[in-house]
């Protein structure tokens, strides 16, 4: 029980990182400095008068590694409310830990190694050895939770923390400024989405994560380079690479594309209001042909990526 408590606490640290839980199989990447911020201005295209500023967030960072460009600060100051995937300030750790253990444990008498595809199990054993983890400690857990635990453990070892992510920075600013904070999803909803994923797809999600050849910290280093450069195409190529593989496409449908469609509907509703909303979601949800930028354009809204200084 103590071991499970520690693992569920690690999950809470990464709760906002569901969109990046399946880290990409990193390939060589050289940042292309576009002069832009990872920030888009969205103007309502249906005559209702709403405006939104859409930020692609890196959820975990090292202290001082994710400086906010002036245009983000300006856009936030002009906004009436902050909108995030999940407001972690509303999450009760004790209740969430209880839910994690309810949803993330296998039924008594079952073991992870009995349920995984042999290929996935071999990859998991190699990863556990590389990280110095005992595979026996993961046996009581469902594959979705194992993937989260491994990812967060690696990122924490590399010095990354959720407290230094972009969304947490704006949550702090919103609290200090007395701005309203709205959620596009909920912590419980994210957990139930993962837990409700069919077993075969959970196995595939874990295998997609384990098949990469570089550690999670090195992968996130690349994503941060793309974020700083405002390189939306480069970040999409990195984080959504696996979506081009027919075998792993269902993983990205579940983690990104289905949720992107739901988020786009929520943003469209916000644009119906004559207010300005500052929206912060994981960068992987913003980019690509099925990302929020593309979906909002398809809805008829005017979307423009801002420079770092405007």
Which runs of at least 5 residues are low in confidence (pLDDT < 50)?
Answer: 1-22
What does the largest sheet look like? Answer: 6 strands, mixed
Shape: globular
**SSE ordering:** HEEHEHHHHHEHHHHHEHHE
Q: Kindly state the mean pLDDT as a whole number?
A: 88
Helix content: 40-55%
| Residue fraction in strands | 5-15%
How many discrete structural domains?
1
In terms of structural class, how would the helical and strand content be classed? alpha/beta
How far apart, in Å, are the first and last alpha carbons?
52 Å
Present the secondary structure layout.
Elements: H1 2-13, E1 36-43, E2 51-57, H2 70-78, E3 81-84, H3 93-104, H4 112-115, H5 118-131, H6 143-157, H7 166-177, E4 180-183, H8 187-195, H9 199-210, H10 216-229, H11 232-239, H12 249-271, E5 276-282, H13 283-286, H14 292-298, E6 302-307
Parallel strand pairs: 2-5, 3-4, 3-5
Antiparallel strand pairs: 1-2, 1-6
Please characterize this protein's 3D structure:
This protein is of the alpha/beta class. It has one domain (2-307). It contains 14 helices and six strands. A six-stranded mixed beta sheet has the order 4-3-5-2-1-6, with helices on both faces. A hairpin with a 7-residue loop joins strand 1 and strand 2. The radius of gyration is 19 Å and the shape is globular.
Short key terms for the protein model shown above:
14 helices, 6 strands, globular, alpha/beta, 310 residues
State the gist of this model.
The protein is 50% helix and 12% strand. It has 310 residues and is an alpha/beta fold.
């Amino acid at each position: 029980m103590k071991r499970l408590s520690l693992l569920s606490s690690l999950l809470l640290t990464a709760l906002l990182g569901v969109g990046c839980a399946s880290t990409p199989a990193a390939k060589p990447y050289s940042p292309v400095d576009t002069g832009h911020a990872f920030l888009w201005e969205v103007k309502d295209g249906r005559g209702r008068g709403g405006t939104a500023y859409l930020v692609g967030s890196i959820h975990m960072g090292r202290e001082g590694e994710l400086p906010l460009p002036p245009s983000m600060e300006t856009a936030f100051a002009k906004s009436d409310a902050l909108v995030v995937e999940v407001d972690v300030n509303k999450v009760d750790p004790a209740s969430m830990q209880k839910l994690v253990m309810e949803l993330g444990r296998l039924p008594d008498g079952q073991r992870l190694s009995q349920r995984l595809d042999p290929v996935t199990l071999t990859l998991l054993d190699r990863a556990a050895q590389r990280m110095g983890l005992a595979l026996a400690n993961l046996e009581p857990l469902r594959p979705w939770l194992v993937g989260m635990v491994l990812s967060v453990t690696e990122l924490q070892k590399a010095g990354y923390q959720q407290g230094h992510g972009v969304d947490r920075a704006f949550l702090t600013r919103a609290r200090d400024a007395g701005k309203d904070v709205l959620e596009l999803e909920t912590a419980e909803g994210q957990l139930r989405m993962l837990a409700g994923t069919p077993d075969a797809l959970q196995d595939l999600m874990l295998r997609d994560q384990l098949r990469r050849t570089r550690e999670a910290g090195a992968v996130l280093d690349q994503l941060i380079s793309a974020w700083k450069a405002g390189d939306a195409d480069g970040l999409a190529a990195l984080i959504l690479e696996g979506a081009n593989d027919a075998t792993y496409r269902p993983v990205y449908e579940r983690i990104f594309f289905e949720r992107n469609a739901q988020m786009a509907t929520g943003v469209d509703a916000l644009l119906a209001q004559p207010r300005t909303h500052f929206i912060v979601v994981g960068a992987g949800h913003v980019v690509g042909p099925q990302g929020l930028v593309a979906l909002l354009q398809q809805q008829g809204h005017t979307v423009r990526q801002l420079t770092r200084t405007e």
